[in-house]
Design brief:
The complex is a heterodimer of chains A (349) and B (200). With 349 residues, chain A is of the alpha+beta class. In chain A, 27% of the residues lie in helices and 31% in strands. Chain A contains nine helices and 21 strands. An eight-stranded mixed sheet of chain A has the order 2-5-6-8-9-1-12-14, with no helix packed on it. In chain A, a hairpin with a 3-residue loop joins strand 10 and strand 11. In chain A, helix 2 crosses helix 4, helix 3 packs across helix 4 and helix 5 crosses helix 6. The longest helix of chain A has 16 residues. Chain A starts with a helix and ends with a strand. Chain B folds into two domains: 118 residues, no CATH class; 81 residues, Arc Repressor Mutant, subunit A (Orthogonal Bundle). Chain B contains ten helices and no strands. The longest helix of chain B is centred in the middle third of the chain and has 30 residues. Chain B starts with 10 loop residues before the first helix and ends with a helix. Chains A and B meet through helix 2, helix 3, helix 4, helix 5 and helix 6 of A and helix 3, helix 6, helix 7, helix 8 and helix 9 of B.
Chain lengths: 349, 200
């Protein structure tokens, strides 16, 4: 209530225009509107002008689209969501949030909205996006995201690829990452989200995040990842908190959630420094990872080397150097062809 | 009718309610239920105390004459409180417009000269229609949640709590949607006004 009063006293005229129709408008709020209207000629002009426009707009009450919303707003919202899902090619999604925030799904602004900024990176590129509140988003290779940001809203749509989020705390302005039809909301935390063909992976580096259905509200503490959550959990997804040091994955097609605790979180954000660390991964997985950053496809054309174990840090900004490093550490040869880079076993092995 | 509004001459109401005795009871009930909301609304509008009785009586009289009032106030078509405030707003706007026209005419008679006010010239009617069309477009292009909240409130006469229930969000969130929707409308208003001034 005090917040409403403060907004009327200090804010733009919109606050008064909304509060004056509210069923719980207090006498103090009404008096505050009165005082501003009386004492500030510009405010008075704006207030009266807007009330006149609202009166004139009564003529739009019988507009077909408005009648449809009044008759069946739930269906209108639902159909809009389905359209968005189809447009994004996403069958299901993931919602995750940090802190006891109330989450609600809100569709995106139209493409003509100037506040919606889109970013993308080509193969091998990275981009750092700094928001006005100090939050930083790092977008990894071949990624695409849109940022919807204003004084009341912080929302990101991750459409493709991987991004690392360092979120500045702002309890009244949720920071939401939307991955199709569901979202991630965070306050004062750091996490990495990667979109795979079949699942989303969220690695929580600092703070905590929570998965839940988009219509659920978060209720503080009770949800948590326990040791039992190492196993896959079938949907429907219940509220589930994931703390720093944990990685959560949500399988889109099967609706399965799982969380695990890796030995190190370092690798989940290390791509931002241009280096990838590998701790005992087989070569084929390392190559799969390097291919994300390489304009020229790298392929292993010798089954005998696919399972070689890799312990090293590789540059993802200079793929040639990374492959040279691998060739020094492992019994492999790297041959560059016109259309691809081929890895084979060293002659004589 | 609440005592706050009951003083003064009620001739208009008496005359209007002679033909619809049952209707008078309905309107009185409406005023009794929402006296506080109406008082706050009028206070926010900064209606001078000596005009409040006139406004209330005229509103009462208008409501007596509304076709299918009972239907419009039923739960299925929104909140009666919201409907009452919308009627009050329309009335206040009408009164202001008439007053401005009267003042402009009086100033002209005295040779003072005055800014031409809302006379119903063909140009003004066309301008008003264009503005309405622009507003329709603004509503249509809003983000869906803002649009739904705004349409339910303005044209469905739903209370904020009812809108929150329909949309599955908190009342506070409905407030935010409406603030953003109003901001869009005001931005459009400013642009229309600026364009109008430019063309003059």
């Amino acid at each position: 209530m005090l917040k409403n009063l403060q907004e009327i006293m200090d804010g733009d005229v919109e606050h008064a225009l909304v509060r004056i129709w509210s069923e719980d408008l207090s006498e103090a709020e009404a008096a505050a509107i009165h005082r501003r209207v009386q004492s500030d000629p510009k405010y008075r002009e704006e207030f009266h002008g807007s009330m006149e426009v609202l009166a004139a707009m009564e003529a739009l009450a019988n507009d077909g689209e408005h009648l449809e919303i009044v008759r069946d707003c739930r269906r209108v919202v639902h159909e809009h969501k389905l359209t968005r899902m189809a447009a994004l090619g996403v069958a299901a999604g993931l919602l995750l949030a940090v802190g006891a925030l109330v989450i609600s799904f809100s569709p995106w602004r139209g493409s003509n909205d100037s506040q919606l900024q889109e970013y993308f990176t080509r193969i091998g590129e990275q981009q750092v996006i700094e928001l006005g509140d100090g939050s930083v988003i790092s977008l990894n290779t071949a990624g695409r995201l849109a940022v919807d940001y204003d004084e009341e809203l912080r929302r990101v749509l991750l459409e493709r690829g991987e991004a690392y989020f360092e979120v500045s705390e702002d309890p009244v302005r949720p920071f939401t990452v939307d991955m199709g039809v569901r979202s991630v909301t965070a306050v004062g935390t750091a996490f990495n989200i990667r979109k795979y063909p079949e699942h989303y992976q969220v690695a929580v580096v600092e703070g905590a995040v929570a998965f839940h259905e988009p219509t659920d509200e978060l209720h503080g503490a009770p949800w948590g990842v326990s040791d039992a959550d190492h196993a896959a959990i079938s949907s429907p997804l219940t509220q589930r908190r994931v703390d720093a040091g944990w990685v959560a994955e949500f399988d889109v097609s099967r609706g399965v959630f799982r969380a695990f605790q890796p030995e190190s979180m370092e690798r989940f954000g290390s791509w931002r420094s241009g280096m990838l660390s590998f701790y005992g991964e087989p070569l084929y997985l390392v190559v799969q990872e390097l291919n994300r950053y390489s304009a020229k496809k790298i392929s292993i054309e010798d089954d005998s080397v696919k399972g070689l174990v890799v312990y090293t840090a590789l540059s993802i900004r200079e793929i040639d150097h990374a492959l040279d490093g691998l060739a020094r550490a492992l019994p492999i040869e790297v041959t560059e062809q016109y259309d691809r880079i081929v890895l084979t076993a060293t002659a004589g092995n | 009718m609440s005592r706050i509004f009951a003083s003064g001459n009620k001739n208009i109401i008496d005359l209007a309610s002679r033909e619809r005795p049952g209707r008078r009871k309905v309107v009185e009930q409406l005023f009794d239920e929402h006296a506080r909301a109406l008082r706050h609304f009028l206070l926010g509008w900064s209606i001078p105390p000596d005009e409040i009785d006139d406004v209330v009586q005229e509103l009462f009289s208008r409501l007596l004459g509304v076709e299918r009032l009972e239907e419009k106030m039923s739960d299925s078509t929104g909140s009666s409180r919201s409907y009452l405030l919308t009627m009050a707003n329309n009335l206040i706007v009408d009164r202001r417009r008439k007053l401005q026209v009267r003042n402009a005419y009086a100033a002209e008679q005295r040779g003072i000269g005055s800014e031409s006010v809302d006379e119903r010239t063909p140009e003004r009617i066309i301008a008003a229609e264009l503005e309405l069309e622009a507003m329709r477009s603004v509503i249509k292009n809003m983000r869906l949640n803002w649009r739904v909240a705004f349409v339910l409130q303005r044209f469905g006469n739903l209370s904020y709590e009812e809108i929150a229930l329909h949309m599955g969000v908190s009342v506070r969130q409905v407030d935010r949607y409406l603030v953003r929707a109003m901001r869009r409308i005001r931005e459009a208003q400013r642009k229309i006004k600026a364009a109008g001034e430019k063309s003059c």
